[in-house]
Design goal:
The protein is α/β, with parallel strands linked by helices. The chain has helices at residues 47-50, 52-57, 81-98, 115-126, 138-148, 172-175, 177-188, 218-232, 245-254, 257-264, 268-280, 298-311, 353-360; strands at residues 2-3, 6-10, 20-26, 29-34, 66-69, 75-78, 131-132, 164-168, 193-197, 209-212, 284-288, 322-323, 343-344, 348-349, 374-375, 387-388, 412-413, 420-424, 429-433. Mean pLDDT is 79; it is low at 368-438. Helix 8 (218-232) crosses helix 11 and helix 8 (218-232) runs parallel beside helix 12. Helices cover 31% and strands 16% of the residues. The protein has 13 helices and 19 strands.
Length: 438
């Protein structure tokens, strides 16, 4: 889109900030700047974006398609766009005619925009196979949906009103320069910034205090802080919006704070610092990084931090709230794309793709282990990330337990100590439904 200040475009990197960019010619090259009218980009970008013009002029830049000649051992040679598109269409047509399930869509996120949905709609209409799960943030997203029905947080601009900030497994200087700018401004206003991280060195530039936690054990620390918070907080806890309060309180009684802290590897002083931070004000912005859920039972860690922010009364409060997977794809919604009549091939699990691909190949002896194709039904949402039910009840002793064979790191085990929760927009309450086997 063209404006008086230049052409308005967007960064294509797979980054949470998704910068809005103004581009205009300058001295035979291009000048890029952050869109000053965008509420989140705010007139500045990272150094990677500023180097875009250099990449466009680079002699190493690939400017045309390449095709391999001479089989798998051959070399790639440049070809015309017409030849490349004809070859791709011919191969795709042949595969679809033989078996649509032999076509697998593997897509990245990139700019996080609607174009990713268009790609998925196109391949769904062909009857191609897709994937489920993720190598990135899906376990935490599934955890938030179990708690609140959707990954729909406070608007990220509300961090500007925070009276305290907790960076839980998040280093925004490395992954989100605009969030880093907000945290730096909050600290300048006198808001305390506490970082929860296994690596204290990476957080010192933004945080006033660092609370160390054993990698993959954040859920134990969050529950310990929740127990301490309930003893300190002098404002109402929003229990009326929660499901199964008794089971949660029973969980905390059965697992003493000292046992939880021993599992997390965190000194009691660190947990008490976090509890005081949440007790002091409801305007605590809890910014959760993706690293916390990239472990076995990582989804439980996100749910435990989410529960802590909820008990503190921060959710929905300007300046408060829990921020996970923001602002990337924040307003995208799952769309029930129409599919090709016939059968819809079962999606492959992304974290287990090396195992799933041979099993899905009809020429393979192991193909019987692949999930069978399912009859096409009326349009429905795309498959959500896999959620597994643990075979044993959750306890601190599981902190050092062996990882279950065959379970991907990004799989979100369903916590055995909470009911499943769904969000009811008219009342804002969290309702429960009891699945079997918990």
């Amino acid at each position: 889109m063209s404006t008086g200040a230049g052409i308005l475009t967007i960064c294509t990197l797979d980054c949470p900030d998704r910068c809005s960019i103004l581009c205009r010619p300058h001295g035979g090259s291009l000048r890029l700047r952050g869109n000053p009218d965008h509420p989140y980009t705010r007139d500045f970008t990272c150094a990677k974006i500023r180097r875009y013009p250099d990449r466009l002029r680079s002699p190493s830049r690939i400017t045309q398609p390449h095709m391999r000649r001479g089989g798998r051992q051959g070399d790639f040679e440049p070809v015309s766009w017409a030849e490349a598109l004809d070859a791709a269409c011919a191969a795709l047509s042949t595969a679809l005619a033989n078996d649509p399930a032999s076509v697998l869509l593997l897509r990245g996120c990139g700019s996080m925009g609607a174009s990713k949905d268009f790609i998925e709609a196109f391949f769904a209409s062909l009857g191609a196979r897709t994937t489920r799960g993720s190598l990135c943030e899906a376990a935490g997203g599934a955890a938030c949906r179990l708690d609140a029905g959707a990954v729909d947080m406070n608007d990220p601009t509300e961090i500007d009103k925070a009276e305290a900030v907790v960076l839980w497994g998040k280093n925004p200087r490395a992954s989100s320069i605009h969030t880093a700018s907000q945290v730096k401004a909050a600290r300048g206003r006198g808001a305390p910034v506490v970082a929860v991280t296994p690596d204290g060195a990476t957080a010192t530039a933004l945080a006033d205090q660092v609370v160390r936690v054993r990698p993959g054990h954040d859920r134990f620390l969050a529950l310990a802080v929740a127990a301490l918070l309930l003893e300190l907080i002098d404002r109402p806890v929003p229990w009326e919006q929660a499901a199964d309060r008794g089971a949660f309180e029973d969980l905390l009684r059965r697992h003493p704070v000292d046992d939880l802290l021993a599992a997390s590897g965190t000194p009691r002083a660190g947990a008490e610092l976090l509890a005081r931070t949440y007790a002091r004000t409801a305007r605590v912005a809890t910014i959760v990084g993706w690293g916390a859920q990239r472990y076995h039972r990582g989804g439980e860690s996100v749910r435990a931090v989410h529960a802590l922010a909820f008990l503190a009364g921060t959710l929905g409060v300007p300046g408060g709230g829990l921020y996970y997977n923001m602002p990337s794809a924040r307003h995208r919604r799952e769309v029930p794309w129409p599919t090709r009549p016939g059968t819809r091939p079962a999606p492959l699990i992304m974290p287990l793709l090396a195992r799933e691909l041979p099993a899905a190949d009809p020429r393979s002896a192991s193909s019987g282990r692949c999930a069978p194709t399912s009859p096409t039904r009326a349009p429905r949402p795309r498959p959500s990330p896999e959620v597994c039910a643990p075979s044993t009840r959750w306890s601190p002793s599981m902190a050092s337990g062996p990882r279950q064979p065959g379970r991907p790191a990004s799989c979100c085990p369903r916590p055995s100590f909470w009911r499943r929760r769904t969000w009811s927009p008219p009342t804002g309450r969290i309702n429960s439904e009891r699945p079997g086997g918990w």
